[in-house]
């Protein structure tokens, strides 16, 4: 895993992602110290279930998959594949808790890493942006929960 500290290029990339559309150019400077880029090789694990990292990520490029463990089973099950711009680790940000899944790069990938504490402080300083970002995350989690509900109903209906 290779990490590159915040730069104007990384900050400008944030503006391309739906999560950060409310961000104005003049607010980017406040985020410089909290962002960096992580480069992963194929097969490299970004995070594990139960891991504490103090950060979340945005998929910048590549192919990143999320897996979860099932009690009594050796292998992990694939939960989803993340598209460009998708946040990962956002539940730990919102809950101030451990990560709930294993995240693996299926091919060379890059992610933008954002430090949780600094990001939450940024949201306090810029409540307009903070509100829109948190609203985006709430919608995202609601969509993921809706998908999970449908999946569980499908599995249960087979019994």
CATH superfamily: Jelly Rolls
Write the H/E string, N to C: EHEEEEEHEHH
Tell me the number of helical segments per DSSP (H or I, 4 or more residues long).
4
**Beta-strand content:** 25-35%
The count of DSSP E runs of length 2 or more, i.e. the number of strands, is 7
Structural class: alpha+beta
Number of individual domains: 1
What's the N-to-C terminus distance? 43 Å
Q: Main sheet? A: 7 strands, antiparallel
**The CATH C-level class name:** Mainly Beta
Write down the overall mean pLDDT. 89
Q: What percentage of residues falls in helices of 4 or more residues?
A: 25-40%
Q: How would you sum up the global shape?
A: globular
**CATH topology tier name:** Jelly Rolls
Unreliable segments of 5+ consecutive residues: none
Radius of gyration: 16 Å
| Assigned CATH architecture | Sandwich
What are the salient characteristics of this protein?
alpha+beta, Jelly Rolls, 7-stranded antiparallel β-sheet, Cyclic nucleotide-binding domain-containing protein, cNMP-bd_dom_sf, RmlC-like_jellyroll
Please, could you describe this protein's structure?
The chain is α+β, with helices and mostly antiparallel strands and 159 residues long. It has one domain (1-155): Jelly Rolls. Helix content is 34%, strand content 31%. The protein is built from 4 helices and 7 strands, in the order E-H-E-E-E-E-E-H-E-H-H. It has helices at 8-14, 90-95, 116-125, 127-157; strands at 2-5, 35-40, 45-47, 55-68, 77-82, 87-88, 102-115. Strands 1, 2, 3, 4, 5, 6 and 7 form a 7-stranded antiparallel sheet that branches. Strand 4 and strand 5 form a beta hairpin. Helix 3 (116-125) packs across helix 4 (127-157). The longest helix has 31 residues, at 127-157. The chain is globular and about 55 Å long. The model has no long low-confidence stretch (mean pLDDT 89).
């Amino acid at each position: 895993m290779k990490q590159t500290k915040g730069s104007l290029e990384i900050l400008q990339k944030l503006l391309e992602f739906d999560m950060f559309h409310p961000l104005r150019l003049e607010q980017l400077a406040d985020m410089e110290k909290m962002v960096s880029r992580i480069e992963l090789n194929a097969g490299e694990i970004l995070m594990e279930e139960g891991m504490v990292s103090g950060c979340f990520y945005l998929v910048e490029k590549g192919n990143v998959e999320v897996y979860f463990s099932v009690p009594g089973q050796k292998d992990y099950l694939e939960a989803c594949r993340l598209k460009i711009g998708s946040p990962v680790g956002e539940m730990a940000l919102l809950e101030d808790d451990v990560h709930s899944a294993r995240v693996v790069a299926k091919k060379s990938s890059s992610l933008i890493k954002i430090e949780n504490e600094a990001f939450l402080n940024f949201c306090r300083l810029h409540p307009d942006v903070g509100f829109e970002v948190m609203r985006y995350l709430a919608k995202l989690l609601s969509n993921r929960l809706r998908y999970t509900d449908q999946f569980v109903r499908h599995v249960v209906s087979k019994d």
